[in-house]
Specification:
Layout (H helix, E strand, L loop, with lengths): L7 E4 L5 H10 L9 E6 L2 E7 L5 E3 L6 H13 L9 H9 L9
Antiparallel strand pairs: 1-2, 2-3, 3-4
Length: about 100
């Protein structure tokens, strides 16, 4: 039996600035600007989306694709103009099965 992950999605507040900066840093992305939605697992921020431009960031050490999809759905429900996953995320998803391990 597999356990599903439950995400808490909420608007980011000023107290989340450090967590958002850390997420952007570990994802090698610039910080998100404007209003932001944050996805948490057990109180730990794992992904976020900018409501201004739809750009997402996520913890690369966790499986955050579902969280980022849920953030996009929530952003659309809020009436923002999110067009879909970024090119970077689409490429990452498509190339994930092709990752090779270097021979030692």
């Amino acid at each position: 039996m597999s356990q599903s992950t439950i995400y808490c999605i909420r608007p980011a507040v000023h107290a989340d600035d450090a967590a958002l900066a850390r997420l952007a840093e570990v994802d090698s992305q610039p910080a998100l600007a404007g209003d932001v939605l944050l996805a948490e697992v057990r109180g730990i921020p794992v992904a976020a989306i900018s409501l201004a431009d739809g750009r997402t960031i996520g913890d690369p050490f966790r499986h955050t694709a579902v969280a980022q999809d849920e953030l996009r759905v929530r952003a659309r429900a809020l009436g923002t103009t999110i067009t879909g996953p970024s090119l970077r995320m689409r490429m990452r998803t498509r190339l994930a099965p092709l990752r090779l391990v270097a021979a030692g």
